[in-house]
# Entry
Amino acid sequence: MKQPLALRMRPKTLDDIIGQKHLVGPDMILRKVVEQKQLFSFIFFGPSGTGKTTLAKAIANSLNRPYRLFNAVTGNKKELDAIFLEAKMTNGLVLIIDEIHRLNKDKQDLLLPHLEEGLIYLMGTTTSNPYFAINPAIRSRCHLLEVKALNAEDIKEAIKHAIAAPEGLYNEVSIDDDALSMIANHANGDIRYALNVLEICSVADKHITQETVAQYSRLANSSISKDDDGHYDAVSAFQKSIRGSDVQAALYYLARLIQANDMDSIERRLLTLAYEDIGLANPAACARCVNAIDAAKRIGFPEARIPLANAVIELALSPKSRSADEAIDAAMQVVNNSSYQVPAYLRLTPVNMDPDDKYDYGRSDLWPYIQYLPDEIKDIEFYSPKNSSKAENQLAQNFLKLKTLKRTKNLKKLKNSR
# Structure
């Protein structure tokens, strides 16, 4: 049975690697490792299809070191025990663990002593952030190296090589420049995706045109998955684009999250953004955001994209004010650092207090003159108005007017004076 093109074209040594110059280029870490024949344990992290497992195999091959593959999800203890036994018999072994962030505690406990003794050189691969997803005991024994998504030129180079190579298509097909660019752009840095598209196109037509590619690659490859960092990167960029008032970028990242069918992240980020970053600068936009999300959830995708786009455009183009967010954070800091008693006249049921000293529910004319904060912090200010819009300017004017009023805790005197 003929192997898939992507598998046939997998690099065998470090010299075959396309891209990743920050790791395999002259004087870079992995190049030095191979040149000096000094092996270490590594964890490679980065998006899918960027060649993490391939890189691990290439290092082992370049150093003529035997290696074994182990999948953290499907592999079991029996397989690990067999690998450890072989390592003892061969005086060391490279163990390549795919999806190492999913390695459960029992398997970690088996691995750690052999890793510590140097019997096993570990090369783990993961699409997750190793600082959050990898067990600290394993992480501390490995060097963390980022494998980056390839750019379009790297992908084009890989495609051309696959077309020409004897183990590839051996020049049995040709490809137009615009078709080459289309595959590279659709691949989103994933060589495996690009070669899979190339292979099916080569079956359909020996001369690959843009129309051929369009037929077999209708959607660009997405790096968003709730199981890896591509998802969190897109959510982060989505929020920051709206905060930075870049409506074009905000719509782009919204489209990516819609493509991933991730209503939960869209809802949470938009609601947080509305009140955190726009807030008092455009209170009506906050309310309309809630309505847009409610409508989107009612009608579902694909139509849900329309109310969501309305909300994103308005939030991105709205004036921004974080005055409410900053105000509550300042108040929370005081509460976290100290504790003050509520003034007696503000308590729900003050005991043994003269009626004239009590809060009067019937005298609304007195309310703006009463001191509500404890004596120790009576002059503290949490809220600082921003001149972000007409809406907040009105609040700021009221705030400044109220600041001119003298507040007091002597309610009896206040009642008698007015």
